[in-house]
Amino acid sequence: MEDRESVTAADFIVIKALENGVTIIGLTRGRDTKFHHSEKLDKGEIMIAQFTEHTSAMKIRGRALVMTKYGSLEAGE
């Protein structure tokens, strides 16, 4: 398991809602992947997030711009 310092230094992603009602769902690490947190964004709102010792994946539902150090992509239609 990573120490706390390396987890808090993990890369961030930026999610910008392009429509009202964009949902971001955090999924857990471990044997069983489960939902552990969700947020709802309205058009123009931005969320800055990172993967942690508890979060291994994120699901984004709705039109959103996702920006990472690797580039940007658009979720939704």
From TrEMBL:
Residues 9-75 form the Tryptophan RNA-binding attenuator protein domain. One of its GO terms (molecular function) is RNA binding. Keywords: RNA-binding, Transcription, Transcription regulation. One of its GO terms (biological process) is regulation of DNA-templated transcription. Transmembrane segments: none annotated. It holds the Pfam family TrpBP. Oligomer of 11 identical subunits arranged in doughnut-like structure. Belongs to the MtrB family. This is Transcription attenuation protein MtrB. It comes from Neomoorella thermoacetica.
